[in-house]
Amino acid sequence: MKYIIFIFAVVFLLASCRKEKIDPLHEITVDSVFVNHVYVAANSILLDVNYDDIEIRLKFSEPVDTLQFRAERLFITGASEPSYYYRFDRNRQYLTIQPDAVLSPYSVYRLMFDQGSNLGGFIYDHYTFTFRTRLDPGPKFPAISDDSLLTLVQKKTFGYFWDHAHPVSGLARERYGSGETVTSGGSGFGLMALIVGIERGFITREEGFERLHRIVTFLSRPETDRFHGAYPHWLNGTTGKVIPFSSNDNGGDLVETAFLMQGLLTVREYFRDGNAAEQEMCNSITGLWEAVEWDWYRKQDQNLLYWHWSPDKGWIMNMGVSGWNEALIVYVLAAASPTHSIPLSVYTNGWARNGAYPMVNNKTFYTIRLPLGPDTGGPLFFAHYSFLGLDPRNLSDQYASYWTQNVNHSMINHAYCKANPRGYSGYSDNCWGLTASDIQNGYSASSPSNDLGVIAPTAALSSFPYTPEESMKALKFFYYTIGDRLWGQYGFYDAFNLTSGWFAGSYLAIDQGPIICMIENHRTGLLWGLFMSAPEVQAGLDKLGFTY
Predict the structure, then answer these.
(1) With contact defined as beta carbons under 8 Å apart, do 164 and 216 qualify?
(2) In degrees rounded to 5, what are phi and psi of residue 341?
(3) Of 157, 188, 319, 420, which is most buried by a Cβ count within 10 Å?
């Protein structure tokens, strides 16, 4: 009997021990977290936190045993791996922690509360949240005069077209690191940038002529691909053969060709009265210009110009060039051609759509009237690419004053970013500019109607003629405030997103070119004066009914 009682006691004891072992301990949860009095949801990210004054306050589901706090289970990780000091409130339900040193500005940190026994109970759910500190508003570079800053930006940007040009052809590479791939349109912008470089003293006239002569010679070679006089979007910088832009885009690109011709005619007018070698180059440029068969790109005499033609794909791209967008220069040059001109009806019906939307708009956005284009204006390169040479200051036709158009388009873009309806970090009076650029893991034509949180410096900087005060504010923000992230070998990197913390490491010819050229037009009107002095350009504008 005693033996049975003993066995029963042992079994009861074992059962009791087993029950105590598997019973969960008292559960403690993090009820809420506040950073500088702002509530933070679990597994979320809080932006623009003060890096030099931060207080994190955790509220638990109930009072805790502060004597059993295991501080090693609560830690902050990030750029500077900070330690912290802490305190509990008198009711033992709030834990306040503060880093014991200033955090790094514009850096990501994560607070983590590990699972395990703590505070007299057990924390079952791993708790974490992420925060990013705000920008350091202090200047990253010594202050210089506004005029000196404009020159510095032009000089650094010029380096893209001088130092990073293709070594054989001299043409502009599509983007930084694109190897053999050169761009026809971006090279047109680069040709104009070379003229600026000569005038600004970045290079000598002789150095500039040598490079320009090399480019014109390469473009004139019979082995360099042309398609009824039009160049492809991309070329191989050594062989001159087309590099397809897409599977069906392996022939002539009329819009890119127009940008190239805009640059070539500007170069011709600059060297028109030069020495014998310079005048010979000018004659070669005239030959390239007159060889472009603008009328061929009417696709069997339609009242519309087409963007692409391929010798093996034909008109398969089937993309008409109609306004309003970046391509006004195409129709001006097509009308101006002394050899392959188009009639007024092609401009009126094809480009201008007889005044139908989205050519004519005339709606008001942010109290600003928009004469032309899609609602809110579209990407800002519409106001740049055709107007590196075309002088919009007194340019008008029956559809618009082009100065008013470009000023108002730029002001709407600025007003949108200042209003920041989507709540992106950084958007403000001095951080603005939506246009086509690199984005994180891709490329996009940003605009108020396609806003991904990405600002491209080329947008505000190339708008200097239209928005000098707003553009200068942006320039100072880009350079002084975030220049430690945005300023590189060839000036400003292509784009950035202050919401996600992303900064591009890229440079694109079509974004760098307008910066140096439009800043020069703002300062001196140099390129406008040269391009508009071409007699063919004046004849083309007259033909289309422009006043200028």
Answers:
(1) no
(2) -80, 165
(3) 188
